[in-house]
Design goal:
The chain is an alpha+beta fold and about 325 residues long. Helices cover about 40% and strands about 25% of the residues. It is built from twelve helices and twelve strands. A five-stranded antiparallel beta sheet has the order 7-6-5-4-8, covered by helices on one side. Strands 10-11-9-12 form a four-stranded antiparallel beta sheet. Helix 2 packs across helix 3 (about 30-45) and helix 11 crosses helix 12 (about 300-320). The radius of gyration is 27 Å and the shape is extended. About 10% of the residues are buried.
């Protein structure tokens, strides 16, 4: 509805100060022409909306103007009371503060709504931890947060994925939680990179400060970085036929393999499928683990390699005399 969109524009400008037509259109998922018409409507209604021209221009509200449109709709207050990840809050040292804030907000609600709030707590819970995974303690986490808020440089020793240790001075821009893992987003020599927090061996908080880029958007950076990372992953594709007994297991797997496509079962009831692995070695180990439940169609050489692996395994146990 247009009325909801106009209110959203007011709140966005009040909270963010200045936004371009393009930014408002993207935020509200409408065309830029629609934003221009909405601005004309707000101006006609007496709302002091100002358009600033130039490279750093945009829409803003006249200084000191504040709207009192603070009423919350049902879905809006429900979204505030969906429990976040307790593990992530604990990592940030905010779990107790979040609980206190939640109680204060709840106290301001009418009694008629309080039961509905408790219903939200009892029906939706977010748990970002993985099965069988114990989140590792990150010793330097408080220092990372302090450096981000105070815009101070860090001297960091970091272990890369290939086990090589590097040292560098970085300008920390933000923290991102991916599942239950934390990543530090930081700039070094004008290049922005992501560092897995659990691989940070040591950090020293420096007295040097830095100027945070005005145009840096953490959410936008992470989204783009994630897409680029996925594109850069090596791919090894295998065409197979899958036994009916493991089709459901393959469909719901999320580790080591991606199911690119799965066709209708053939007359033999085996299901043709295309699987994607990061490396040939991963493909061999994964498929071998299913023994005679996956039949390789392509590449043919993979059949021979898995056959040789299985033969070496049989020979090994025969020599051990344990069979």
């Amino acid at each position: 509805m247009r009325a909801d969109r106009l209110i959203s524009i007011l709140l966005l400008l009040q909270n963010k100060g200045k936004l371009t037509t393009k930014e408002l259109a993207k935020e509200l998922e409408v065309a830029e022409r629609t934003i221009h018409r909405d601005m004309e409507a707000l101006s006609a209604a007496g709302i002091p909306v100002i358009a600033e021209r130039g490279k750093f221009g945009g829409w803003r509200l006249l200084d000191q103007y504040r709207t009192k449109l603070t009423g919350l709709k049902e879905n809006e207050w429900m979204s505030l009371f969906i429990s976040p990840s307790f593990q992530l809050l604990a990592d940030l040292g905010l779990s107790k503060d979040w609980q206190k804030a939640r109680q204060k907000i709840l106290a301001s609600f009418p009694n008629a709504l309080k039961k509905n709030v408790h219903d939200v707590w009892n029906r939706i819970h977010v748990d970002t931890t993985q099965w069988g995974h114990s989140p590792g303690k990150i010793e330097s986490f408080k220092i990372l947060q302090q450096a981000i808020w105070e815009e101070r440089k860090l001297q960091m020793k970091y272990e890369r994925a290939d086990r090589e240790c590097i040292e560098r001075i970085v300008e920390p821009l933000g923290l991102v939680a991916k599942g239950s893992a934390w990543y530090l987003v930081a700039s070094s020599n004008e290049n922005i990179r992501s560092y897995r927090a659990s691989r940070i061996i040591s950090v020293i908080l420096l007295t040097d400060v830095f100027s945070r880029p005005d145009d840096f958007d953490l959410v936008q950076y992470w989204s783009h970085s994630t897409q680029e990372f996925i594109k850069s992953l090596p791919k090894y594709e295998v065409d197979v036929e899958i036994s009916p007994s493991i089709v459901q297991r393959i469909k719901f797997t999320g580790r080591f393999v991606r199911v690119l496509k799965m066709d209708i079962p053939a007359e033999s009831e085996w299901t043709p499928a295309s699987l994607c692995f990061e490396t040939e070695q991963e493909a061999k180990e994964y498929i071998l683990g299913f023994a005679n439940q996956i039949r390789i169609i392509r590449p043919i050489r993979l059949r021979k390699q898995i056959y040789d692996m299985a033969k070496r395994l049989v020979d090994f146990y025969e020599r051990e005399g344990s069979i």
